[in-house]
Every structure is written in C-alpha cells, then in structure tokens.
Design brief:
The complex is a heterotrimer of chains A (307), B (285) and C (372). Chain A has one domain: MetI-like (MetI-like fold). Helices cover 69% and strands 1% of the residues of chain A. Chain A has 13 helices and 2 strands; from the N terminus they run αββαααααααααααα. Chain A has a two-stranded antiparallel sheet with strand order 1-2. In chain A, helix 6 packs across helix 8, helix 8 packs antiparallel against helix 11 and helix 10 runs antiparallel to helix 13. Chain A is globular and about 80 Å long. In chain B, helix 4 packs antiparallel against helix 9, helix 8 crosses helix 9 and helix 11 packs antiparallel against helix 12. With 372 residues, chain C is of the alpha+beta class. In chain C, the strands form 5 sheets. In chain C, strands 6-7-8-3-9-10 form a 6-stranded mixed β-sheet, sandwiched between helices. In chain C, strands 16-20-17-18-19 form a 5-stranded antiparallel β-sheet, with no helix packed on it. A 4-stranded antiparallel β-sheet of chain C has the order 2-1-4-5, with helices on one face. In chain C, helix 2 packs across helix 3, helix 2 runs parallel beside helix 4 and helix 3 packs across helix 4. The longest helix of chain C has 18 residues. Classes of the chains: A mainly alpha (307), B mainly alpha (285), C alpha+beta (372). The interface between A and B is large, with 101 and 100 residues.
Chain lengths: 307, 285, 372
C-alpha cells in the first residue's frame, strides 16, 4: 500500500440516532406549525359562540346559531355574492388576458423577454400599495385616469367612491396586479410544450387558429388549471386591494368574506359572526385547495422529472 | 420559420404596446408624481412637463413636513425600517426553521412527513384572518401583541411554506449518491449537510429567500391586525399616511415609490427563479 | 483488511421484495463479484453493506463485528459508484481528499495521499479540475481514487466500468486486478458484464430477483451452473438450449437430435423419459464429415466472423437453431449443408419445468451438494 495510514477514525462525536434525525430536523418548523393550528381551532370554537368583545358578560356557546342566522341574513348573502362575483370575474378576465399576452410573447426574442420581465413589476408591487397607486390615479380632483375620462366626455365617473363602479375599480386593480402571474405561468407552460406536434400540424397545413384549439389548448390545460385554481384560491380571499381602496365600501358594496369578517371583528366586535364567516370561507378554500394541490403535485412531479 | 403577414405583425405590435402601457403606466405615473410639488400635481390638464423636485423625498427622509400652514411629523422612515426589519428577520427565521425541515422532507421519507409538509402547505391557502383574529386576542393575553417577535412568528405563515417547498425541490434535485459518497468517505450527516447539500442547493435557497422576502414585504393583513403605528411596515403605514397627511399627494407618491422599489429591484435581480418560486416549483422557469 | 458477512438480509420497497434472505460471506482480501441482470438487487445489497440503506431484517458483520446499526461513516468502507457521484462543487483533488479529511489527516499527509493514489490511477495531471471538466474516463478514475484514498479495509465497487467507453473498459479490466491486489482490501465488485466477472472475481455470486442463485469460482459458475438462467448469463455466444427427452439405451442415456442419438454419458438414470432442456456451449459443437458417427445434418444459415472466433448459425431438419463457435482461421462451411457433432457428455441438463440442473454428469454426481 502506497499510503500506509491506518484508518484512524475520528473520535465519536455527539450523534443523533438515524431514525430520530428527520424528526429533529423538522421539529422546529413543526412547532411553529402547531402554534398556528391552535388559533385555527380557537376560531372554530369562537364560531360556535355568541361572543361580542363589547359584551364579554354575554359570551356563551350558541352552537350552530351563528351559521343558522346566515340563512336569513341578507348581508351574508351579499358577502357571498360579492366574493364569488369578485373571484369569478377577476380569475376569468385574468386568465383570458394572461393567456393572450402569453401567446403574444411566446416566441423567444429580446423584446419579448424584456416585456415579460417588465410585466413582473406589477406582480411584485404589494397589492395594498397598488390599490393606493390606483387611488391616486383615479382621484376625482387630479387623477390622471379621471382626466382621461373627461377627455372622452365622461365627467362624473367616481371609480371606487361610487357603488356602481366600485367593483369595477377593484377588479381593475386586481387585474393589473395578478394578470402577470397568469401570464408568466402560462408562458412557461407554452414554452415547455414539445415542438413536434406543431411542426407536424404545420406540415399538414393545419391553420394556426386550429392548431391553437386542437393542440395548444389541450396541452396547456394542466398549466391553465393550476394557475386558475391558484388564483381562485387567492381571489376568493382578497382583502388587501379592497380594504386599501374602499374599506369594503361604499356601504356594503365590496364586503367580501375577509373584509366583512375584519369589519365584524374590529368595528361591530362580533367575534362569533366573524369567526363563522371565516369558517365558511375556509370550507370553500379547503375544497378548492384540495383540487389544486392534486393538480399542482402532478405538474410539479413533471417539472422535477424534466430537470 | 412560419410566415407572418405585415398586418399580423402590426396588430401584434399594437397589442404589445397596449399591454406595456397598461402595466407600466401606473408605476411610471406615480414615479413622476413623486418628483412634483402639489401645485404641478393638481394642474388641469395634467402634464409630463414639470420641474422635478426632491422636496417630497426630503420631507419623508427628514420626517418633517413644512407646509405654509404648519410643520407636520411623518413617521414614514419608521415604517420603512419596520418593513426591512420584519422582512429580513422573518426570512432569516424561516430559513433557520425551513431549510433543515426541507432537507428532512427531501431526504427521509419518514412517517407522516408528507402529511406535515401538506399541512404546512395548506396554511399557504387558508384565509389568514382565520388565524389572525384569534391570535390577536391571544397575543393580548401572552404579551406578544404589537411586538416584533409576535409579528415575525406570524410572518412564518407565508415565509415557511414558501421556503420549505421550494428548497425541498432543490434538495431533491441533488443525487442522493453524492451525499452517500460523502458519508461513506467518513463524514457525519451534519458535515454532509453543510459541505454537500447546502452548497449544491445554494442558489435555490437564495432564490427562495429572496421570494420569501418579497412576500413578507408585500404583506398587508398581518400587520394591519397585529401591529400598532410604530411597528407597522410600509404597506400598512402608507394607508395610514394617506389618511393623516390628507392632501400631500407628492409625498404619498414618493412614499409609494420608496415602498415598492426594494421588491421590484429584487424581483428583477431574481427573475430567473421567480416562475419556479411563484408556482412553488410546479413550473420550471 | 477485514472479512465481511451478511446474514439473512431482507429488504422491501413499497411492498416489493428487493432482497430476499441474502446470506453471504467474503473472506479477508478476497474479491467477490456480484453478478446479475439489472434489478436483481446488487446495488441495494452494496448500499446495505455501505450503510446508506438499512435492511428490514438481517445483519451486516464487518471483521466479525455487527455493524448493522453503525453509520456509514464509521464502517471503514470505500465505495465507487456507477454514476461516479463526484462532488460537483469540488475539484478532483478535493474529491479524492475527502476520506483523508474525514480521518483528520494533516494537510501534508492529505496532499501526499491524494497524489500517490492519483499517480497510481494516472490522473495526477487533472487534480485541479472540477468534475465537469473531466472526461468520462477521468471521472471514473477520480471516483475510484476517492474510494481508494482512505485505504479502507473494505472496498465496494458498483459497476465502475458501466459508464465508460469500450476501450477504457478493456484497459481497466486488465489494470483492476493488479490495483485491487495492491490495495490489500476485501472487495465486492458489482457488474452486469460476465467477462468482467470472470476476469476480476475470486468468486462470483450470481443474483437474480433479490436472491443469490449461486456462489462459486468463475470456473464453477461457467462449467457447473445451477440453472438455465445462470448458464445463459455466462458465455458469448449464448449457450444453445435444446429441448430433449433423454431415453435409456443400451449404451446409457441418449437424447435424439434430428433423429441422431447424442450420448449423454454417465448420468442419473431417473431422468430418462422426462422433458429436459439440454445446454451445450457453442464451442462444444464441431463440424464433422457426413460419415462420422452421430453426425447431425444441418443447414448453415449465417456465419459471423469475430476477431478470435467464428460463430455459425445453423438449423437442424427439425428447425432447431444452433450456434457453433470455432477458433478463427479453422476451416468450416459458410453456407449450405453441413454436419455437426455434439459432445453429449459435456452437455448440461436442466429440468424443463423449473430450469434447475438435473441429471448431472458422472464426475458431478460425486461432488453434488457442494456447489449449493
């Protein structure tokens, strides 16, 4: 042997047993996780109580009463309606717009790459701050957008301040912030599609509009589904944009779930109703997120496989 | 290459221009606004021709707003500091907790590991107020209300799942054989983690950290519920600022520019990893 | 040096049995080749020995000491991986130095050790390179150098020549035995290449479906395979397998090929009348003239001249295909009708039902039971 060193092993160090190691490594994260589960169960508990911060003496279990009250509560139905309307409209519009932009930018070129990077900026803007930016632009006194409208003869468009246009205004901000999200996911999807089917179709003389419906769209479906569900999950819970723009107003025009729950808690101090509202929202998101996670895992598996 | 008609080229160019205008104009406009005095802002019709001034930024940085009527205190720099501190500290904590856990989930398929990973992931999708409102009451009782520690803890709701799932993917991309080889060469698991796994997943960990920072920075609802004025980050602070300063639109614009500049800069810097991060690894960038 | 022993090792993955009651012992300084098709469990077994996978059952003993629960880093093992598994962010030098660093060697000793083993493997000129700058052959040698550098008493080589080109594989096959002998280590060498197995192994363990089918010297395995599968795995061209039903005759057992009796010599008479598969190595068949005793007529279908031998594919009247191998340069028919003779006494007989050896030849009868 040329290097005649006996394998002098280092002295035994402090060791964590093989089986315990993964638990030890994930324990701290786990504890934080549990710390978050506690308030969740508390919320379940609150939702079953008559509990107003202003009347602590009257606090008692009323079981399903908060939930039962919702049936005859027009403001609850308004919340449900506005939330679904907001989520549905933003997601559909963002999907269509995002897909259109992704198709526009599909070809790799310097200008296209530059534009797609530029479009990241709205997405990286805090939604609450984005709402403030649009608030400045839609100010009736000096807002540039209000000014543009006067140029085409619309003088009294009051954007977020009017109940007829408030939903439109917040949806516009949501589209501004989140369309790029749809766009970059779909663009990544588009660019990862195999080339052969398109080449074959081009050789066969299939018109491009047909190629889109018959090849692009079906192959892009997993990406579309994942992006849509993801956005749906966030949009049904939207708070930042709406609260920063109008605080749910005017009146109850924009009292989506989280805004209504927030106002119930801090303004009406009705903890029980607030918690019950959030539980219903949680049930909706739980349902969507289960579908989402399945899709997302499949897509993730595929992405990792390609790596 | 396929043939594109001149008409189609023109239409594409127009569409692209409209897209760029729609998405870029607000940022550009607020940016311009931040260099204007209230007089030029309130001009009708508005114009892009104006004499740029730094007074808005000066007022924000010195914390003193001198108007003809009175001198106003602005706490915006405090908000900016809070944003930096909360985001940095939250990401640091999330890394400390999340990276080892991500490694455990990637390398050891132990009992319940998938369940735990999914529970953590599901926090990403649960309504934040569901946790925040009870927590607001608990924090009052245990003295964490309106403290940095309490906020940093709650920020783990966004940072931890992000770090965990992205970094886990990067660890999984390392061939286990490479780690085995290092172990067999005579090194402990910890040395292997430090000398092999961490350096090889390094770029991914850095990208996840940047993303977590951006999400923490952009968060609004946590601090709105749990923090009072002197602990609030810029997202909440800017809203309060508008209410307080009323008509000082130039300063509001300058405040917004200062508040969004860091995340935009980081996003441009890390854009290569952004797609993968935003989709939690479901789509490769 | 240390001996190595595996006792009743079992391992399952997701309900699938990967290793099924594997026992094995390797003497000090011995080179044992684990041979078998992919999916046989060779790599899993090697990793079990290395300590990076835990067995569900059984024990791993190194130098007589139970190391089943010992961490990989404390087993005193060097291992080379099939995919090299070099540390991509470290230079070749740092790669090779890693076992020495773990032993807390001084910087001087590390440098001396790395350079010595690098010279031995002729990679001393690329020590400063990162793995991605190395050729496949250099990667392979670096991986080997890393396994050897710590002078481990036990060396595990997982098909180290699998991913290198044919020329390098040939060179290394010649070089490795000397290298392994110099190392003075107990070696387990995994391969799917029977020539490598024959060239390198003191003994060969043939694995399939998570079990060890046969252990023996290369000659044992080649001349006395335990079943059809093992017989088919060794030898190039592949062994001829002909279905026969031996019958007892006046001069002992014989099998009919195209109506010509092939004498099987002194064998267990119990196999008479049973359906068997007869295995005959292509080199045990020769061309003869038509007048020879027991000449079997065949049609020559094709002839493939290889370097050192010529392989002929012929067909009997009954449509059986037979491969015949003869040393290059010796005469033989290239086409048309020809006659062959089969050395029936050298034939291996297997039961058709389960492929196990049956009706061993005369000299085998005495040593039966030992091979298992």
């Amino acid at each position: 042997m040329t290097m005649a060193t006996t394998p002098g092993r280092a002295p035994r160090r402090f060791r964590i047993s093989k089986r315990a190691l993964p638990y030890v490594l994930s324990l701290p994260a786990l504890l934080v996780c549990i710390g978050i589960l506690i308030p969740f169960f508390t919320a379940v508990f609150y939702s079953l109580q008559r509990y107003r911060l202003s009347q602590p003496w009257a606090r008692k279990m009323n079981w399903g009463e908060n939930y039962l009250n919702f049936f005859s509560d027009p403001s609850f139905w308004n919340t449900l309606k506005v939330s679904l309307l907001y989520a549905g409209l933003t997601v559909v519009l963002e999907l269509l717009l995002g897909l259109a932009i992704a198709l526009l930018l599909q070809k790799r070129s310097t200008i296209n790459n530059f534009v797609s990077i530029m479009l990241l900026m709205p997405l990286m803007t805090a939604p609450a701050l984005a709402a403030l930016m649009w608030k400045l632009m839609t100010n009736p006194g000096f807002g540039i957008l209000s000014y543009f409208l006067t140029l085409v003869g619309i003088d009294d468009f009051r954007w977020g301040a009017s109940s007829s246009s408030a939903l439109f205004t917040v949806i516009l901000v949501d589209i501004w912030v989140y369309t790029p999200f749809m766009m970059i996911l779909l663009l990544a999807g588009l660019r990862s599609l195999p080339k052969q089917p398109f080449e074959a179709a081009a050789l066969d003389g299939v018109p491009r509009i047909q190629q889109f419906w018959r090849i692009t769209l079906p192959m892009l479906t997993p990406y579309i589904l994942t992006a849509t569900l993801f956005r749906l999950l966030e949009s049904i819970q939207q708070f930042d944009i709406i609260y920063a723009m109008t605080q749910g107003g005017p009146g109850d025009t924009l009292t989506v779930f989280q805004v209504e729950a927030y106002l119930n808690f801090f303004q009406s101090t009705n903890v029980g109703r607030s918690a019950a509202l959030l539980m219903i929202l949680w049930a909706i998101t739980f349902f969507i997120s289960n579908i989402f996670i399945k899709n997302w895992l499949r897509l993730r598996e595929r992405a990792r496989g390609e790596a | 290459m396929e043939y594109t008609s001149p008409l189609e080229k023109t239409l594409r160019a127009i569409a692209l221009t409209l897209v760029v205008i729609f998405f870029m104009f607000p940022i550009l406009w607020i940016f311009l606004m931040s260099f204007q005095t209230n007089e030029t802002i309130l001009r009708v019709p508005p114009s892009v021709v104006f004499e740029p001034t730094l007074t808005n930024y000066q007022a924000l940085i010195t914390g003193k707003l001198e108007t003809s009527a009175a001198s106003l205190e602005i706490n915006f720099m405090r908000n900016l500091f809070n944003s930096v501190f909360l985001s940095v500290a939250s990401v640091a904590v999330a890394m400390l907790l999340g990276v080892p856990a991500a490694y455990a989930f990637a390398r050891h398929k132990f009992r319940g590991s998938e369940d735990i990973a999914f529970t953590l992931l599901s926090f990403r999708f649960a309504p934040p107020l569901l946790v925040l409102l009870p927590l607001a009451l608990y924090f009052q009782q245990i003295g964490l209300a309106d403290t940095y520690i309490g906020l940093i803890w709650v920020y783990q709701l966004i940072c931890l799942p992000l770090i965990l799932w992205i970094v886990r993917g990067y660890f999984e991309d390392i061939s286990p054989d490479i780690e085995y080889a290092y172990r067999i060469a005579g090194h402990s698991w910890f040395a292997t983690f430090r000398k092999i796994a961490l350096p090889l997943a390094g770029p991914g960990i850095a990208a996840a950290g940047l993303l977590a920072f951006i999400f923490a920075w952009n968060n609004f609802i946590f601090a709105l519920v749990l923090a009072s004025a002197d602990k609030q980050p810029v997202t909440v602070g800017a809203l309060a600022f508008i209410t307080a300063s009323g008509i000082q639109y130039g300063q509001i614009a300058a405040g917004i520019v200062l508040s969004i500049a860091p995340t935009l800069a980081l996003a441009l810097y890390a854009q290569k990893y952004l797609v993968e991060g935003l989709s939690l690894g479901a789509v490769k960038g | 040096m240390a001996s190595l022993e595996l006792k009743n090792i079992a391992k399952r993955y997701k309900g699938e049995t990967v290793l099924d009651d594997v026992s094995l012992s390797v003497a000090e300084g011995e080179t044992l080749v684990l041979f078998g098709p992919s999916g046989a469990g060779k790599t899993v077994l090697l990793r079990l020995v290395a300590g990076v996978i835990e067995p569900d059952q059984g024990q791993v003993l190194i130098g007589g000491e139970d190391m089943t629960d010992t961490e990989a880093e404390d087993r005193g093992i060097g291992m080379a991986f099939q995919n090299f598994a070099l540390f991509p962010h470290m230079s070749a030098f740092e790669n090779i130095a890693s076992p020495l660093e773990a032993q807390r060697a001084t910087p001087g000793a590390i440098r001396a050790g790395v350079e010595a083993v690098a010279r031995l493997l002729k990679i001393d000129h690329v020590l400063g390179h990162a793995p991605r700058e190395l050729s496949n052959g250099q990667k392979q040698r670096t991986a080997l150098a890393r396994a050897l550098a710590g002078a481990p008493p036990i060396l595990l080589l997982d098909d180290p020549l699998r991913n290198v080109d044919a020329k390098l594989r040939f060179e290394m096959r010649l070089e490795l035995p000397r290298l392994l002998a110099e190392q003075n280590a107990t070696v387990i060498y995994v391969t799917q290449d029977y020539k490598e197995a024959m060239a390198l192994g003191d003994r060969i363990a043939v694995m399939s479906n998570g079990r060890i089918e046969q252990i023996g010297t290369p000659a044992d395995i080649y001349l006395d395979p335990a079943n059809i599968d093992i017989a088919s795995l060794f030898g190039d061209p592949i062994i001829n397998l002909l279905e026969v039903t031996p019958a007892a005759g006046s001069k002992g057992l014989a099998a009919q090929i195209s109506g010509v009796p092939v004498r099987l010599g002194n064998r267990d008479p119990a196999i008479a009348g049973q359906e068997m598969v007869m295995g005959i190595r292509p080199e045990a068949i020769g061309f003869v003239s038509a007048k020879s005793k027991a000449a079997i007529p065949v049609d020559v279908e094709a002839e493939t001249p290889l370097n050192e031998k010529t392989v002929t594919l012929a067909k009997t009247a009954g449509g059986r295909e037979i491969l015949i191998s003869r040393p290059a340069g010796t005469p033989g028919p290239a086409s048309g009708k020809a006659y062959i003779s089969i050395d029936g006494e050298a034939a291996l007989l297997f039961a058709k039902s389960d492929g196990t050896r049956a009706g061993k030849g005369g000299q085998d009868l005495e040593t039966e039971g030992e091979a298992a």
